Amino acid sequence: MLEQFFKNKLPLMPLPLRVTLGLIFITQGYMQITGNDFCGDIFFLSFIYLFCGLAILVGFFTRLASISMLVSLIVFWYIATLLGADTAPHMSIETQVLILTATLTLVFSGSGKFSLEKYFKIR
Q: DSSP letters of the chain?
């Protein structure tokens, strides 16, 4: 019974993941830009978060945006670990790993049925 229910809804599965990750990345980028502790070193990273988050949210070049986010997350975590800094004081390491895993899932799954890629027939 559950198999029949989910059989037709498989193309919809990336949608909630895309919307959630897009909103998380947009929020993170906005907080980094407008925060009081804004540092010029993370200026580029903040805009990557904003624009890639928006691309993921609407489903436009989702795989490219997800790969960009994966690279920036891994580089940021590596540099922060070398410097001994806390990567994201407002997020636990479990949350950061979950975001990394969800982004990796979007790299493999793509944008799904309801996206700008499908609307403009980019793929």
A: -HHHHHHTTGGGTHHHHHHHHHHHHHHHHHHHHHSTT--GGGHHHHHHHHHHHHHHHHTSSHHHHHHHHHHHHHHHHHHHHHHT--S-TTS-HHHHHHHHHHHHHHHHH-S-SSSHHHHTT--
